[in-house]
Description:
Largest sheet: 6 strands, parallel
Oligomer: single chain
Helix content: 55-70%
Order of helices and strands: EHEHEHEHEHEHHHHH
CATH architecture of the largest domain: 3-Layer(aba) Sandwich
Shape: elongated
Number of helices: 10
CATH class of the largest domain: Alpha Beta
CATH superfamily of the largest domain: Response regulator
Distance between the termini: 57 Å
Structural class: alpha/beta
Amino acid sequence: MMIRVxxxxxxxxxxxxxxxxxxxxxxxxVVGGADTIAEGLRLAARDKPDVVxxxxxxxxxxxxxxxxxxxREGARVVVFTAYDGDDDVFRAIQSGAKGYLVxxxxxAEIARAxxxxxxxxxxxxxxxxxxxVKGLTEPLRxxxxxxxxxxxxxxxxxxxxxxxxxxxxxxxxxxxxxxxxTALFNKxxxxxxxxxxxxxxxxxxxx
Length: 207
């Protein structure tokens, strides 16, 4: 039984390289390659691949549009991307992806992911799995270490105040506010103010 695979990737060197290594694998047949979602869907409708190896960042669609589109075509999707952020992983899975690989994965791992997903299982690159577990545990532990001042700054950030407004409200320097905001980002595992507020709300730190 051959597993029919379609590769949708807009970098020719990457696409052709993956096609070459997969063609050496037993029971895997590469039925085609495309550099856009539109072309990939056309090929999927014609060739009926079992698994689509899909880059998330393609020029003709939003990050997750392609995942959902190929799932609707009846294909199992393995995301193949340079992006390993938690949001990308979760959104891809929510959109229907059954596997998630980072570019640069060994050929054997790519083949293993394809076989597992074809068999009805899920596959996460060990690097991604470790990162997700770490992301779920470390920020929770660090968020318990917020000082009283940091909690006060956090509430004012959540209220939409700028650093200058927070400095005036708390009678501290703007530089000190920046220091506290940076500490909040680190302890919450956030990249920006909106994410910090969202994470804090999830953990009950704003009540």
